[in-house]
Design goal:
single chain; alpha/beta; Rossmann fold; Arc Repressor Mutant, subunit A; 2 domains; 59% helix; elongated; Tscrpt_reg_LuxR_C; transcription; two-component regulatory system; DNA-binding; phosphoprotein
Length: 203
């Protein structure tokens, strides 16, 4: 994934693209313009930031663009622009996972507020992904026995029960538990469990 956070504007209307580019740039938000959904999909493997797209475009419309993004596992926040008559299409886009939709003509500040919210959502999502990736690396460093102890701890079992389940002494469980806490960089059992559950949800 590119680390460059941008607002990608996808619209077949040059005047609209230029107008939105000026508006975003005037607010200090980096922007990249694409004249079609196919151009965006072909040039951006996975983007950081958010996407603004018209719901009605030739060949690949906004709803189909969303479907293709989600099909390739891209969770990029998407804002759909729509005319009044196209609200049903915008609702369909929301069902496909659009972050928001805005009816034209829209107030500049309403548009910028939606973009800022989408960028914030994308930023938080990227931070969660990075945290989960780091936790997965820590889990990968655990030995088979340490993984067993981790699973038992996440299941809420006390040391004596874990010892019985694994056929080892409570003292040995304590040693493995300390190793697990150290490798996972967890300051408490609650922190350890939260980290393990985060990876489970992410899997």
């Amino acid at each position: 994934m590119s680390g460059e956070v941008l607002v990608h504007v996808v619209d077949d209307d040059l005047a609209v693209r230029q107008s939105l580019a000026f508006l975003l740039a005037s607010d200090g938000i980096p922007v990249r313009l694409h004249d079609s959904a196919a151009a965006f999909l072909g040039s951006v493997a996975q983007a950081a930031g958010c996407l603004v797209t018209d719901v009605r475009m030739p060949r690949i419309d906004g709803v189909e663009l969303l479907r293709r993004l989600r099909a390739r596992g891209d969770a990029l926040p998407v804002i759909v622009m729509t005319g009044h008559a196209d609200v049903p299409l915008a609702v369909a886009a929301m069902r496909e996972g659009a972050f928001d939709f805005i009816e034209k003509p829209f107030d500049d500040e309403v548009f910028l507020a939606a973009v800022r919210a989408a960028l914030d959502r994308g930023r938080r999502s990227a931070e969660r992904d990075a945290a989960a990736a780091e936790i997965r690396q820590r889990v990968a460093s655990l030995s088979e026995r340490e993984l067993q102890v981790l699973d038992e701890l996440v299941a809420g079992k006390p040391n004596k029960v874990i010892a019985k389940d694994l056929g080892i002494s409570p003292r040995t469980v304590e040693i493995y538990r300390a190793n697990v806490m150290a490798k996972m960089q967890a300051g408490s059992l609650a922190e350890l469990v939260r980290a393990a559950l985060m990876v489970e949800r992410d899997a």
